[in-house]
Design brief:
41% of the residues lie in helices and 12% in strands. It has 118 residues and is an alpha/beta fold. It has a single domain, classed as Rossmann fold (3-Layer(aba) Sandwich), CATH 3.40.50. A 3-stranded parallel sheet has the order 1-2-3, with helices on both faces.
Length: 118
């Protein structure tokens, strides 16, 4: 995770404001009204719990933020499930890191019009 954070902060005008390695901590942080973020990057596999649980907890949230999944397990079925649970995009760690960086860059630079971040 540290290498992903370093890469994003170096290549994209973003600042990482929080991390969690388990579902309960992630959900608590994301539901705290004093915590704000524009983008949530969720992994499916966590030390405890699941990224799917994080996605479920975020459903119906009033917070305006993008939610993407970055996982080694980005099968067609898992992508479909994540999108149904509210993820905006799903990226495969093994071959879509560049696409994630491009997505984050477009989001950070305000390219958020309809269809732009698809």
């Amino acid at each position: 995770m540290d290498s992903l954070i370093a890469m994003l902060e170096e290549m994209v005008p973003v600042k990482v404001v929080g991390t969690a390695d388990n579902e309960a901590t992630a959900v608590a942080w994301l539901q705290d009204p004093d915590k704000a973020c524009d983008l949530v990057i969720v992994d499916i596999f966590l030390k405890r719990g699941s990224g799917l649980g994080v996605l479920k907890a975020l459903q119906g949230s009033a917070a305006e933020r993008r939610v993407v999944v970055l996982s080694n397990y980005a099968t067609a079925d898992m992508r479909r499930t994540c999108l149904q649970l509210g993820a905006d995009r799903v990226f495969d760690k093994s071959n879509e890191i560049d696409a994630l960086v491009q997505y984050c860059h477009r989001l950070a630079t305000g390219e958020t019009g309809p269809g732009v971040l698809a």
